[in-house]
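Title: Comparing notes on inverse folding

I've been comparing how different people in this forum approach sequence design from structure. To keep things fair, I'm posting one structure and asking everyone to reply with a full sequence. Here's the target:
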């Protein structure tokens, strides 16, 4: 989707890269409302994927439930490398942990969620937008006026 933000360069977002633990799920449970929002984003044409170390061995089940792809990434460098193969200038990253920092440095737009598992301060300092929950982060792309209002100068 194309974004025209006053005082900001125009940009295009094609892919939404999500973190799993602490972002899409809390303590292994999918955050209520995520599934519906992801369906709305897919209907708008976004490619959606999550990167995870699969600590809880639940990535396959959650990806099947959500109807999205996932990729194994056990380090910050692996997350960055996976994104480099996905045209990072057209990607947004949503996460919370230190493992997300290298990914956030190379994508077009990085968003941090401040949910129950917390946020690493270095990740926070390297993000473009901070929101309370994953639902708020996804809503930025379901209602583009929210995103524009946050980014405009």
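Reply #1:
Here's my take.
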């Amino acid at each position: 989707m194309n974004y025209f933000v006053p005082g900001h360069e125009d940009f295009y977002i094609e892919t939404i890269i999500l973190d799993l633990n602490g972002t899409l799920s809390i303590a292994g449970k999918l955050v209520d409302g995520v599934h519906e929002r992801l369906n709305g984003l897919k209907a708008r044409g976004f490619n959606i994927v999550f990167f995870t170390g699969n600590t809880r061995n639940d990535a396959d089940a959650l990806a099947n439930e959500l109807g999205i792809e996932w990729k194994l990434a056990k380090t910050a460098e692996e997350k960055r490398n996976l994104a480099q193969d996905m045209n990072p200038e057209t990607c947004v990253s949503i996460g919370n942990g230190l493992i997300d920092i290298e990914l956030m440095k190379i994508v077009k737009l990085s968003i941090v969620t401040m949910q129950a598992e917390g946020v690493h301060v270095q990740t926070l300092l390297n993000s473009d937008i901070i929101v309370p929950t994953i639902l708020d982060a996804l809503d930025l792309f379901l209602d583009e006026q929210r995103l524009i209002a946050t980014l405009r100068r």
